Amino acid sequence: MARVSIKDVAARAGVSLGTVSNVLNRPSAVRAATRAKVESAIAELGFVPNASARQLAAGRSRTIAYVVLDATNPFFTDVARGIEEVAKAEGLALFICNSDQDADREDQYLAQLTELRARGVLITAMDYANPRLQRLRDTGVPVVLVDRAPEQGTTEWCTVGVDDVAGGELAITHLVEAGHTRLAFVGGPADIPQVRDRQAGAAAATAAAGLPEKALTLIRTSGLTIAEGRRAGERLLGLPRRSRPTGVFCANDLLALGLLQHLTQHGIAVPDDIAIVGYDDIEFASAAAVPLTSVAQPRHLLGSTAARLLADEADRGSQHEHQHVVFPPELIARASTAVPASARRA
């Protein structure tokens, strides 16, 4: 079947091409009776406007993209909903690109988005030094870094994030205050900036508590998933019982939930034997069999703030001033770190 064109609509309605264009783009500029004729012709012919062609003619896309680390992680779903809320209000289409914690896959998405000349790109990156990010900007595509606090000297991007170093400090300080002196940090890969920052905060809080460096055991994971949390549980239980950490801070909630699952399946009481702190405070954290203590990030607000900055840069161009928004983390204490019964009796 041949594609119905704007010329076909104009012929059926008995009007000019310009009139049809006005009905599609500026309907208020067309008299009601004429507009009704054109709309009737559109309905009869089943005409669908070619958005790509219209955007090409206007020289501006109405599509933005969010490149996420892991689309299966509810944290990123909540961030994306904040972005979507702003995109809808701005009349923009939102594409979600899942790098799946794969630097090569992330690179491919950035190459495609450069070719498509998206209106703007938001990214939670594996590699913020990727030269393709700069190439995007060189082609006039605004880029906003999401879930990333700015590094010193960062001026060429807008950034929106949480102070992850402070978040790591909150988690370990909470465990120390609950009486734990044998601690562990579970997380990885180490090249993910958020993981590095949360580990740095954990190390700083350990030192601030007057504990030796060896008091914080590192259990590295290859990803930030529930399955990796279970594997971390295997390694934790493989440590000698007398020196095994009793307070564990996980780099995100999925790791913490996997760890919690493995420990409870092997008869380890949480928090009496081992206390757990997660990060992100996703919805599943409070709904776990043992409700999970977590360092909360304002997920929806991260997304909506980043999207507003992106829209402003896309609209104002060189008049836009880059901003670096850093939200403070908040520790939400739940049952997974409650003071053990033995300590309460003492």
Number of helices: 14
The main β sheet shows up as:
6 strands, parallel
Cα radius of gyration in angstroms:
26 Å
- Catalogue the unreliable spans: 341-346
Strand-residue fraction? Answer: 15-25%
Strand order of the largest sheet: 2-1-3-4-5-11
Helix content: 40-55%
**Structural class of the helices, strands and pairings?**
alpha/beta
User: Span from first to last CA?
Assistant: 82 Å
Along the chain, the helix and strand elements come as HHHHEHEHEHEEHEHEHEHEHEHEEH
Taken from the alpha-carbon principal axes, the silhouette is: elongated
Number of strands: 12
pLDDT averaged residue by residue:
90
Secondary structure blueprint with pairings:
Blueprint lengths: L5 H8 L3 H9 L6 H14 L5 H8 L4 E6 L5 H16 L3 E6 L4 H14 L3 E4 L7 H8 L4 E4 L11 E5 L1 H14 L5 E5 L5 H16 L7 E5 L5 H12 L9 E4 L2 H13 L9 E6 L2 H5 L5 E4 L2 H18 L7 E4 L2 E3 L8 H5 L1
Helix pairs in contact: 1-2, 1-3, 5-13, 6-7, 8-9, 10-11
Structure notes:
There is one protein chain. With 346 residues, this protein is of the alpha/beta class. The protein contains 14 helices and twelve strands. The chain has helices at residues 6-13, 17-25, 32-45, 51-58, 74-89, 103-116, 131-138, 164-177, 193-208, 226-237, 253-265, 283-287, 299-316, 341-345, and strands at 63-68, 93-98, 120-123, 143-146, 158-162, 183-187, 216-220, 247-250, 275-280, 293-296, 324-327, 330-332. The strands form two sheets. Strands 2-1-3-4-5-11 form a six-stranded parallel beta sheet, with helices on both faces.
